[in-house]
Amino acid sequence: MMHEHHRRALNRLAEVMRQDLVIVALITSGSIAQGRAKESSDIDVFIVLTDKAFQQRKQADQLSYFNREVCDYDGGYIDGKMVNVRFLELAAERGSEPTRATFIGSAVVFSRLPNIVKLIATIPVYPELNRERNMRDFYGQIYLYGFYFASEASKKNNTYLMYHAAN
Prior knowledge:
Layout: H1 4-18, E1 23-29, H2 30-34, E2 43-49, H3 51-59, E3 64-67, E4 78-84, H4 85-94, H5 97-102, E5 108-111, H6 116-122, H7 131-156, H8 159-166
Parallel strand pairs: 2-4
Antiparallel strand pairs: 1-2, 1-5, 3-4
């Protein structure tokens, strides 16, 4: 369930975004998308740009977005990440578990793209065909970090490697 003030802020943001033709879609994420938002929660979004605009912003290191102006509730703000369609396609094809989890419950607020709703819906779906390989890789990582790195760090009294293994 989305609080009404969050919905108003998203609608205002969509009005602003529609004015800029390099913005091709606006997608919710985070606690708002997942139905866990408190009244004071911020609003997390993905802003999908054309490839050219994405590359320009990437070069300028401007891939984040922050806006307090469209929120009418105390302390409210919108926090966003700029992405392109290729990012979304790759997330659906081979996204990590944290990436997939980011899109759970996500909804398209507005879009100029005809198939984006379907694309967004596929991102959080676990790729069952890859389960065996993913589990093998996961256990390999546990062994590598939990046993080998930790053992080597302990033998060599290497604090950096120990912290790396623990993380």
